[in-house]
Design brief:
This protein is α/β, with parallel strands linked by helices and 422 residues long. The chain has 2 domains: 212 residues, D-Maltodextrin-Binding Protein, domain 2, CATH 3.40.190; 189 residues, Periplasmic binding protein-like II (D-Maltodextrin-Binding Protein, domain 2, 3-Layer(aba) Sandwich). 40% of the residues lie in helices and 14% in strands. The chain is built from 19 helices and 11 strands. Strands 2-1-3-11-6 form a 5-stranded mixed β-sheet. A 4-stranded mixed β-sheet has the order 8-9-7-10. The protein has a two-stranded antiparallel ribbon with strand order 4-5. A hairpin with a 2-residue loop joins strand 4 and strand 5. Helix 12 crosses helix 13. The longest helix has 15 residues. It is globular and about 70 Å long.
């Protein structure tokens, strides 16, 4: 998963809603009337615009096949590079050009404003029941599911078996102490080799942080959903991370380094270990430096043993009720959630399914099987309404916790910010 696309695009949503009921570039009226309907789909592009793997092509093919079955419904598809997606979506909302379907955003802000359909309003019963429960819960707002998971991923530890052999390491680490010892041995191999790659730059620092927090028995929230960012367990995790950094067993200045850089460095053979999703696989394959026998994955190490509840991430679909197109939206989404399309998307972008039936079909895949099997016990990001803002704050500031500022201070500042936005 390239990232959990934040609801930052919904900034200023309240101010834009006043005229929403009468503003639209969509055909007015409900599809239940039997007339022609145009749905507007706005999604994140997981590929590259202008190439064969652009998500525009993926969704347009679905829209075309759907139109053949339902000729009175046309789906206008627009996808935007995931880096630009939040800004472009924010612009649409501010100009009151509301899409009917958004893929790649979180639902809570829309639900809070009363313009999101409940998932049960826009999915058939069979499709709704087929969603993986772990991720379906991520679309909750005040106990009701609004967001619909479309694509997912989990995290694991990637390790370079060639570097392990050179350093005299036999197996993947299961504890922090083992990881520390292994990282030190690999770092001493020379040639600028990095023992453990720790990406805490602005791209996805919240994911790297969460994996370490989980390893200490911590996390962003407690069982009741209250923020616990500066908990003792989380401070313990960052104190240990500091130990690795100070020893020179990571890259220099992790707070300025993004995962894309370290994933590429791992693929080039210069990083011994790095946390990652299935999206690392095509990077390894494209680099051509490591053969299939040169690397492997294992559960992420924890303070006292392997993490059994790894980070699980999903990108969601949100259906808006602004244009009163419930029937047409339900028909399209139920069509788009067929296993054929789930498998096609996951194969194209090296991600995991959001439906139980599609996931079951991938359990025995030699590469993706371990990631799929980790889904039921995975830990997701908080569903708090202000999580997108908190996630942005984490990306921007948490790197300082390993780049010179005391971890307790940095985590405390983020905790204060999180509580102030509730």
């Amino acid at each position: 998963m390239k990232r959990r696309l934040a609801a930052a695009a919904t900034l200023g949503l309240s101010a834009a809603l006043a005229l929403s009921a009468c503003s639209s570039s969509s055909t007015s009226g409900s599809s239940s009337s039997g007339g022609s309907v145009t749905l507007h789909f706005f999604g994140a592009d997981y590929g590259t615009a202008g190439t064969s793997n652009t998500s525009q092509t993926y969704w347009q093919d679905i829209a075309t096949a759907f139109h053949k079955k339902y000729p009175n419904i046309t789906v206008d598809v627009q996808t935007i590079d995931w880096n630009d997606f939040p800004t472009k979506l924010h612009t649409l909302l501010q100009s009151k050009n509301y899409p009917d379907i958004i893929e790649g955003d979180a639902p809570q802000s829309y639900a809070q404003e009363g313009i999101a359909y409940k998932a049960s309003d826009v999915l058939s019963e069979s499709t709704l029941a087929n969603l993986i429960p772990t991720f379906a819960k991520q679309g909750d707002y005040q106990g009701t599911e609004y967001g619909i998971p479309f694509t997912t991923s989990t995290r694991a530890l990637y390790y370079n078996k060639k570097l392990f052999a050179q350093a005299g390491i036999g197996t993947a680490p299961t504890t922090w102490a083992e990881l520390e010892a292994d990282a030190a041995k690999i770092s001493k191999l020379g040639n600028s080799t990095i023992g453990y790659g720790m990406p805490l730059g602005t791209e996805e620092a919240q994911a790297e942080s969460y994996m370490w927090m989980l390893g200490a028995g911590g996390g962003y929230v407690n069982g009741g959903g209250a923020y616990t960012i500066n908990s003792a367990a989380n401070v313990t995790a960052f104190n240990f991370m500091n130990t690795l950094v100070r020893a020179g067993d990571t890259e220099a200045n992790p707070g300025t380094v993004n995962r894309a850089t370290l994933w590429s460095d791992f693929a080039a053979g210069s990083v011994g270990m790095v946390g990652g999703s299935p999206a690392v696989v095509p990077i390894i394959q494209a680099a051509g430096k490591l053969t299939a026998s040169d690397w492997a994955t294992a559960p992420f190490p924890g303070e006292n043993g392997a993490v059994t509840n790894p980070l699980g991430v999903d990108d969601q679909i949100v259906a808006l009720n602004v244009h009163n197109q419930q029937s047409a939206i339900q028909q399209f989404l139920s069509f788009a959630y067929q296993d054929t399309y789930q498998a096609q998307f996951d194969k194209e972008y090296d991600l995991l399914p959001a439906t139980t039936s599609a996931a079951t079909a991938e359990e025995n895949d030699p590469i993706f099987g371990p990631f799929v099997k980790a889904i039921p016990t995975s830990s997701a990001y908080p569903t708090n309404a202000n999580w997108s803002d908190v996630s942005t704050k984490i990306k921007q500031t948490i790197g300082a916790a390993v780049d010179g500022t005391a971890p307790a201070t940095v985590l405390g500042q983020i905790q204060t910010f999180a509580l102030s936005g509730q």
